[in-house]
Amino acid sequence: MKSLITGITGFVGSHLAELLLKQGHEVYGTFRWRSRTEHIDAMRKDIRLMECDLLDPHSVYRMLKVAEPEYIFHLAAQSFVPTSWRIPAQTMHTNAVGQINLFEAVRDVGLDPRIQIACSSEEYGLVYPHEIPIKETNPLRPLSPYGVSKVAQDLLGYQYYQSYGMKIVRTRGFNHTGGRRGDVFVTSNFAKQVAEIEAGLRKPVIFVGDLSSRRDFTDVRDMVKGYLLACQKGKAGEAYNLCSGKSYPMREVLDILLSFSSIKPKIKRSADRLRPSDVPLLEGDYSKFHALTGWKPTIRFEDTLRDILTYWRERVKAKQAKDVYSL
């Protein structure tokens, strides 16, 4: 099976590449000249990297002409919600137009792959208490430019299925995390602060945003298994929630991380970590996808958080060793 991952160098893309290689897939992946590749360096001999800018239709066409994938996992995107407030037009352009270029290139090359597009729970946005847990039929009321851009991707996937019969499956992933998660994302950011305090690299103060927000977290390793099943068994044109079915307030997430450490830091709310409008609660229902594929999360959230903290402890330790060596 020839599989293409757009955004293979990212957090999720690297985990998906590992899974596909274990399953015996021939893995292709797109990257840009400025992409950081440390997440996939250990796999470079086993995957075929293809430089491609999804905003350049000719670049996408050339890439697909060579790869000719049977599965496409479309992960490449501007994926950080706070950034979308600063660059809303660029977020929309990157996420929506990049996907259109991918779909059009598939048609122009004459391919007929199964395509999974990574949509987001942020599409649901404003959810009322009586709508919890969130089903795929819930109204979409996005509260960020990022959420709007993912609605655009989601509905474009549906439109291309209806208009051209393309085998597109939409997965609405709720929050997913694990080792390698960028430090701008909440679980990773908290873990990095804990690791740096433990190492004496910062004062015992942890900066936070709104700790009352509740999110539904899934381990990235479970999430990418869902992506693969979506390509293998998902019904074209359908949308599926991928989530754990349980939400945690950010305060509890922080408390769990601190329970793995002996530090007793002060908790300080920072204005620059607050959003113009935030989604107070996201808690999903994955029963539709489970009924079709049997998928369900298998990794406990506490174990995921422990893995993230271990990841950051190792990175901090490596940085300290490098700094000492360079003296």
What does this structure look like?
The protein is an alpha/beta fold and 327 residues long. It folds into two domains: 2-177 and 217-242, NAD(P)-binding Rossmann-like Domain (Rossmann fold), CATH 3.40.50.720; 186-215 and 246-281 and 300-326, UDP-galactose 4-epimerase, domain 1 (Alpha-Beta Complex), CATH 3.90.25.10. 43% of the residues lie in helices and 17% in strands. Strand 1 (2-6), helix 1 (11-22) and strand 2 form a beta-alpha-beta unit. Helix 6 (186-198) packs across helix 10 (301-326). It is globular. The mean pLDDT is 95.
Which outline best applies? globular
- Mean pLDDT figure: 95
**Total individual domains:** 2
Which blocks of ≥5 consecutive residues have pLDDT under 50? Answer: none
Strands side by side in the biggest sheet: 3-2-1-4-5-6-11
Number of helices: 10
* Strand residues, percent: 15-25%
What integer value in Å does the Rg equal? 20 Å
List the secondary-structure elements in sequence, H or E.
EHEEHEHHEHEEHEEEHEEHEHH
Q: What structural class results from the helix and strand content?
A: alpha/beta
Specify the helix fraction band.
40-55%
Kindly list the characteristics that best describe this protein.
single chain, 327 residues, alpha/beta, Rossmann fold, UDP-galactose 4-epimerase, domain 1, 2 domains, 7-stranded parallel β-sheet, two-stranded parallel sheet, 10 helices
